[in-house]
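User: Some background: our group keeps a shared notebook of sequences we're curious about, and every so often someone picks one and asks for a predicted structure to add to the entry. Today it's my turn. The entry only has the sequence so far, pasted here. Could you supply the structure so I can complete it?
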Amino acid sequence: MIVVLDYGMGNLDSVVRAFGKAGAVVKVSSDPADITAASGIVLPGVGAYAEAMRNLRGRGLVELLNHRVLDGQVPVLGICLGFQLMTSHGEEGDAEGLGWLGGTTRRFRFAADSGVKIPHMGWNDLQREAESPIFEGIDPRACFYFAHSYHVTDPVPEAALTTSVYGDTFISSASLNGHIFGTQFHPEKSYENGIRLLANFARRTAHE
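Assistant: Of course. Here's the predicted structure to add to the notebook entry:
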């Protein structure tokens, strides 16, 4: 069973619908019993870094997530803010994160005359820096949908999976230790390519 973590933030309904289209049954929950039994965990995300971490801590979920993901090696997928929470620190709200990927989540900063708008919203392609089963069957030229003002910087070097360019180059997805995945883009809003990515993640959880 894949658990889509309800921590008071995130686009839960659209993530659940997208997994359904991918042929995967998921459960929205913050119940420790469900998280303990999960074969995969999804951290969705729309919102503010510091508030999200307060919610996770307030619900007593940080220690359990660390136990399941780091000790139990349960596959996890972080989406947008959920991906950013895997860093060690968030500039927004000056908050400590989960720290699984290292690095810091920072706001985009562009020169006033650059013409580059914040937030970054829309379709963008990915430059693959490493191979991963999460992209199995997906054309390397495929585009995905982004909606964010903050981005992951300086994670552990082996984690960077793809980069994208929006005013500058930023990390658009990561993979660590074969079971920790994160995407800055929204697969649930990325049509066929996003559904394929979610199906690939679901298959990974079935092996656990």
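Suggested note for the entry: Residues 2-206 form a domain with the Rossmann fold fold (CATH 3.40.50.880). The chain has six helices and 14 strands.
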